[in-house]
Fold Immunoglobulin superfamily member 21.
Amino acid sequence: AYLTVSIEPLPPVVVGDAVTLKCNFKTDGKMREIVWYRVTDGGTIKQKIFTFDAMFSTNFSHMENYRKREDLVYQSTVRLPEVRISDNGPYECHVGIYDRATREKVVLASGNIFLNVMAPPTSISVIAADTPAPFSRYQAQNFTLVCVVSGGKPAPLVYFKRDGEPIEATPLPEPPAAAGSWAPRNLLHRDLDDTKVPKSLAAAEGEAGGRRPPNTAEPPRGLAAERGPATEAIPETVVSREFPRWVHVAEPIYYFRHTHAPVSDGTVEARATLTWTLNPQIDNEALFSCEVKHPALSMPMQSEVTLVAPKGPKITMTPTRARVGDTVRILVQGFQNEVFPEPLFTWTRVGSRLLDGSAEHAGKELVLERVPAELNGSMYRCTAQNPLGSTDTHTRLIVFENPNIPRGTEDSNGSVTGHRSFRLVLALTLTVILELT
């Protein structure tokens, strides 16, 4: 007797699809059994998912007499109504027939197939790295956008666009496994303000026979310098704090890195970073988008952000009518525009220190515990800044008298002192005198 077994190949399938595995076998013998296995743990475990045992089957109408030599073709199918990521992996179809010479001997053959289950990404988001953080708008600095794509299998193709146009970026190698989180190095930059007259490059080179003047630091070298052995020298200048300007030799140079990490559910998390030297004058209100292509998607996924400096913070104060001894909360609730990246908030008191003695306070909320009457009329400044710019907003604290606290009886912490304590001592003294008399 002879037996051949094969499983029909399947293209990659998408999570949720209905899948039918088909096992075809050809024989001139009599069937004994059909068994389907799902193979896991690299082939060490075989999970039985379907069994047909001819010994206990009463349906022999499709079977021929095993003594009659005739090629018979059969097909066994297993249907997965809604395939999942966990269904990904190899499957085997085992077929056994009785040998024609003796009924005691069983001839076995098998076929296998790998079911490739794809999953489209479930989420995509764009964030700014290392924010909120102080950012000097008078010095060119690195800025990094991070695109996080989760839930996909296999790893998706991720790329960035600016104002709808694909960005041509210089790829960076993946960091070593032991390097930990990667932080972009400083790009080559020089501040230049064309409202001031820069020194002549020829004059600068002519000093000391073309040698660099003493105490002049080497220009910072980083990612941008790696593009070629030669970099353009920019003449020194005086930087104006009112009109900062950044001069680029050409278009901004972008650097791109793409990494992915496996997740326990069989999918991957992909992270793509885009780094360049930020120029607030040209990057403010620039639209950046991260797009994802994946074989399980009919069209790309997209997430976009617009780089915008904060404008017009909206500040609220509670209680609206503060009294001596109250705890006052001053909170930034939003802006007149959509701000990205997240701003850094700094609170200061105009002309003096804060109530707790500190020079400034970081955070969206400033809390003043048990305000004393001395804070009446004090002015507070909230500075909101992100890499695109900063804005200041002031609010004045008006403190009203508290009928439960007589005027002049609170200390700097809002605690009751003075007349009330004096009245208490006087009452105790009178009590003692009355008892003695």
Q: What stands out?
A: The chain has a mean pLDDT of 78. The chain has three domains: 3-118, 123-171+253-307, 313-400. The first helix runs from residue 201 to 206. The domain at 3-118 is CATH 2.60.40.10 (Immunoglobulin-like).
